[in-house]
Amino acid sequence: MQNSHFGRVRRALGRPWRATVFLAAGLPLATIGAVVLLTIGIPPTPAGAVVLLLFSPLLTRIQRDRYRVLYDVEIPPTRHPQGLLARLRSRSTWRPYLYHLLLGPLIGTLGAAVVLGWAAGVAMVTCWMWRYALPLDVRLSENPKLFTLNTVGGVVVLAVLPWASAAVARLDCWAGRNFLGPDRAEVLEKRVEVLAVSRAGVVDAADAERRRIERDLHDGAQQRLVSLAVNLGLALATMPDLPSDARTVIQEAHAEAKAAIEELSLLVRGLHPAVLDDRGLSAALSGIAERSVVPVRLTVTLPQRPPPTVEAVAYFTVSEALANVAKHSKAEQAEVEVRGTGDRLLVRVWDDGVGGADASDGTGLRGLALRAASVDGRLTVRSPQGGPTEIRVELPCVR
């Protein structure tokens, strides 16, 4: 416990000196920026601009090393856009120059004041020692109160400087992060790219897991239930002399087995229909249209087969939309159109029902919107009161 207390005290005492060393190391670099600014002039001459363009990357790299080594502040490098014009128009190109020519010299001036303040404070506190180094006649002519005031002033200066050095160091770190590192927009853009890649991986993994579960159920539990139903049916057909009670039990078990097979088939189809993998989106949607209680006119135009994840999203979108038509719309007919155009897949579901569908009300359409958004797709709904209702889904097909 005592060692931990002394460790905290030691770290607290070491922070001002670390900040001062950090600021002192930045003085030569700030001086270079000020000299360059005075040399090239404002606005810069062509020769000065060339010098600035050549030396700014080197100064930026040295500054990043100073932040990392002396203050444990990591400033990642900036990603510049491709092309000369795009690079010249980018904020990431010009922000370092603003730091080197304006903020660096200003912060360097504050850092120089901190360094000189430490030197002046130490000199003021130790002025009584320096007094005895003076000649005797000069020492006798000096007022002792002046030395006492200097000592007190030095103590005050040394007491204030730790906070001042830390404040200037924080200001320097803020300027370095915001002007020598990536722009906040660049950081957010990179984070969005990472999240998009990770989300796509999660969606693909979830789709692959649904496929695996569908195969396991189809090849395992469903086949066992089919075998059980067949055996029970054979027992009823080949054993006519069974007692009536036993026959009733077997008949009920046979009916339950067939009902379980039907429910399991619906579950498997809801996870991931096998026909979607075997024969593609057109055949899978034909099955949905045939099973719909509302007559459906289906049109599928696909120059090439979409990615599996996009196929699954389109399939379940149409399936859920037609289920909503059957439950809520009171429609007499519906249309489903699926069309591939370049790198997009367009899905349109229309019905002549009563309308009034709202994506913000209920979970059905909201679920469709979330399913489309999982692959960077977009869902729009037009459903005025009295109908008709049209659902459009646009899905990217980038492989």
UniProtKB/TrEMBL annotation:
<feature type="transmembrane region" description="Helical">
    <location>
        <begin position="97"/>
        <end position="126"/>
    </location>
</feature>
<dbReference type="InterPro" id="IPR050482">
    <property type="entry name" value="Sensor_HK_TwoCompSys"/>
</dbReference>
<dbReference type="Pfam" id="PF02518">
    <property type="entry name" value="HATPase_c"/>
</dbReference>
<keyword id="KW-0812">Transmembrane</keyword>
<protein>
    <recommendedName>
        <fullName>histidine kinase</fullName>
        <ecNumber>2.7.13.3</ecNumber>
    </recommendedName>
</protein>
<dbReference type="Pfam" id="PF13796">
    <property type="entry name" value="Sensor"/>
</dbReference>
<keyword id="KW-0547">Nucleotide-binding</keyword>
<keyword id="KW-0597">Phosphoprotein</keyword>
<dbReference type="InterPro" id="IPR025828">
    <property type="entry name" value="Put_sensor_dom"/>
</dbReference>
<keyword id="KW-0808">Transferase</keyword>
<feature type="transmembrane region" description="Helical">
    <location>
        <begin position="146"/>
        <end position="169"/>
    </location>
</feature>
<keyword id="KW-0902">Two-component regulatory system</keyword>
<dbReference type="GO" id="GO:0000155">
    <property type="term" value="F:phosphorelay sensor kinase activity"/>
</dbReference>
<dbReference type="InterPro" id="IPR003594">
    <property type="entry name" value="HATPase_dom"/>
</dbReference>
<keyword id="KW-1133">Transmembrane helix</keyword>
<feature type="transmembrane region" description="Helical">
    <location>
        <begin position="21"/>
        <end position="40"/>
    </location>
</feature>
<keyword id="KW-0067">ATP-binding</keyword>
<keyword id="KW-0418">Kinase</keyword>
<dbReference type="GO" id="GO:0005524">
    <property type="term" value="F:ATP binding"/>
</dbReference>
<dbReference type="InterPro" id="IPR036890">
    <property type="entry name" value="HATPase_C_sf"/>
</dbReference>
<feature type="domain" description="Histidine kinase/HSP90-like ATPase">
    <location>
        <begin position="309"/>
        <end position="399"/>
    </location>
</feature>
<dbReference type="GO" id="GO:0016020">
    <property type="term" value="C:membrane"/>
</dbReference>
<dbReference type="Pfam" id="PF07730">
    <property type="entry name" value="HisKA_3"/>
</dbReference>
<dbReference type="GO" id="GO:0046983">
    <property type="term" value="F:protein dimerization activity"/>
</dbReference>
<keyword id="KW-0472">Membrane</keyword>
<dbReference type="InterPro" id="IPR011712">
    <property type="entry name" value="Sig_transdc_His_kin_sub3_dim/P"/>
</dbReference>
